[in-house]
Amino acid sequence: MTGEIKIAVIDDHPLFREGVSRSLAEIEGFMIVAEGGNCEDAIRIAETLKPDVILMDISMPGGGLEALRQILQREPEQKIVMLTVSEMNDDVTRALDYGAMGYALKGVGSRLLAEIIRTVSSGRTYVAPTLSAQLISTGGNSKQARMRRLTARERGVLELVAQGLSNKHIAIRLDLHEKTIKHHMTQILAKLEVSNRTEAALALRDAANNH
Question: Three-class SS of residue 84?
Fold first, then answer.
């Protein structure tokens, strides 16, 4: 079937991993292409299979956040959802800073998990509502906090956007493909919670002025 979302599940608890894989495989439109149990598995699967979405735990051998960081350095367009028990603000903000597109808590039902995967697959971000509220109440959603979610590469792209450069000219300047710049822009708009390039550039200016 064409149009299936290819998913990899990375978790060091085999029973949980198999349960998630089985639940998703039963839903039309999803295909499980790989399973893994540690940081090395996650990196290898991302590089060799390039699944549409990777579901990954934070607490696993080698570290889920480290796997996230390394994967997105090598494969910047890879979409990753952290599926974990951790509700710590630090874990959530670091995951978003590193470029995770989603942050969901274990215990989520298979139907909601399927919706989260579809959301992320379409290029939008998802953070569990309880965690979003928590971040806002602790100042994790201020302009500076949102700006801190950007990777160094995304920050560099945004600075060029603020100078008025088009995606094409940014690609030439950074020696990257134009589609990679488009992906970075999607991530930037989602992380800054703005809807266009002008608002993103203004957010950069405001964050600098208020720093």
Answer: strand
